[in-house]
Design brief:
Length: 448
């Protein structure tokens, strides 16, 4: 198009030059062309030039407009490219942030799951079920003690009837409680007990006090085996209570001592669910690593009960400890093992199935002063009315404990709140089942 315009422009310029030459030579012009012919030839060309110039201007304007639009489009493209890059960078940043948030969410989820395990207060058994379980154990102990005390009295009585003047052909005269131990009403001085019986009496005195020793040594248990039954109950209750109070049922030694100290410190300084869950997890893993620990512990507790029973029977004058241990093992091992198994089952429940509090068996050691708030007197109402703590109210038992005949149950709960320091002062102690005890004044009641 530009070339065409230039060609027409050149032709117009040539014509104008020729016109100028001819105008300078009018003679030549008039000779060759006329004025009308020149005008008619120049008019279309000029119009064509004007038209082409107009088109050229339009094309230039359009060209400038297109260039401006192109520049604007390029600017917009660059702007959009920058925006896209920014969005891509933002997307990468959001992806990285989302990944961090997902990892954090997973960590929090694991923490919450862990906290749920450590802060749950859900118990497998209700408190009433635990109380009933302790009562069942006490009933089993009562049945054993009654059977053992009456059975031994019958055995010795039959031995005496079969061979007058001796308790048994295999034993010395010291095995006859009547020959060795007169009732306080007889006024007869008892002979010196044998060496084995003296050791048994010393062990009984160490466990249950001198008053129990006197009761076992001086009284005629064939005529009235009541005190012997109480002594046997106390012996088994003490063994079972100590076994259930251990971190692992029936365990002893340094490891047991360390675990118990760790748990006691944790229970006093951490929220209740945390210490309970730690104890449950530790206890379950110990049992998992030692599959036979329950059977071994039950056997050991049963043997401990048998040795204690043999010492009580020997102190009561029914023979030597080794002979009585063999006899008791043959006759009462299955019964005592059943008691140990029930106690082991109860210990498992309070160790691994109780998170809301810490249940502990309650056994009152001998020679302690009677407290009606935490103990129950077996002979309440049958003793001589006395006042308690100087309050002036009559009919309330007082005095020292002779022995515990039934195990009680208490719960220890750390009532400290989050954000505050936990301490032993924040532990709430509540007796849910009072242990039943016999006071030293029982001798006066039985002698009425």
């Amino acid at each position: 198009m530009l070339r065409k315009i230039r060609t027409h422009t050149y032709e117009a310029h040539s014509l104008s030059q020729q016109t100028t030459v001819h105008s300078r030579n009018p003679r030549k012009l008039s000779g060759r062309y006329s004025s009308n012919t020149l005008d008619s030839s120049l008019s279309p060309t000029a119009k064509e030039i004007a038209r082409l110039r107009g088109e050229l201007k339009l094309l230039r304007d359009k060209h400038y407009a297109l260039q401006a639009a192109l520049r604007e489009a390029a600017t917009q493209s660059r702007t959009k490219d920058m925006l896209v890059e920014q969005l891509r960078e933002r997307n990468r940043s959001l992806d990285a942030e989302a990944g961090d948030l997902r990892r954090l969410a997973d960590e929090r989820r694991l923490e919450v799951r862990s906290m749920e395990r450590f802060l749950t207060k859900t118990d497998r058994w209700a408190g009433s079920d635990l109380v009933q379980a302790v009562k069942d154990i006490n009933n089993e102990i009562l049945q054993f003690a009654a059977a053992a005390s009456e059975g031994m009295a019958i055995i010795v009585s039959n031995s005496i009837s079969g061979v007058p003047g001796t308790a048994s052909t295999n034993n010395t005269t010291s095995s006859n409680p009547r020959a060795r131990s007169k009732s306080p009403q007889d006024g007869t001085k008892s002979p010196t007990p044998s060496l084995g019986r003296r050791k048994a009496l010393e062990r009984v005195a160490a466990r249950f006090g001198s008053k129990m020793r006197q009761c076992l040594e001086k009284r005629d248990h064939m005529q009235d085996p009541t005190l012997l039954q109480y002594a046997l109950q106390a012996c088994v209750c003490q063994c079972i209570s100590h076994a259930m109070s251990s971190f692992c049922f029936g365990s002893t030694g340094k490891l047991e001592s360390h675990l118990s100290k760790i748990y006691s410190h944790m229970h006093a300084t951490e929220p209740q669910p945390t210490s309970s869950r730690w104890r449950a997890l530790t206890h379950s893993h110990i049992r998992a690593l030692s599959p036979n620990i329950d059977s071994l512990a039950t056997t050991e507790v049963t043997d401990t009960c048998l040795r204690g029973v043999a010492n009580v029977l020997s102190a009561a004058g029914f023979g030597e400890v080794e002979d009585l241990l063999q006899r008791a093992s043959q006759k009462y091992r299955s019964q005592l093992r059943r008691i140990s198994e029930l106690a082991n089952r109860f210990a498992y429940i309070i160790r691994e199935g109780t998170m809301s509090t810490d249940f502990q068996p309650l056994f009152v050691e001998s020679v302690r002063e009677f407290n009606p708030l935490t103990m129950e007197n077996v002979y309440e109402g049958y003793e001589i009315p006395t006042t308690y703590n100087g309050t002036g109210s009559s009919g309330t038992s007082r005095g020292r404990v002779l022995c515990t005949t039934e195990v009680g149950l208490q719960c220890l709960t750390n009532k400290g709140k989050e954000g505050k320091e936990f301490s032993p002062q924040t532990i709430e102690r509540r007796v849910v089942l009072k242990p039943r005890v016999v006071l030293e004044s029982i001798v006066q009641v039985l002698d009425r």
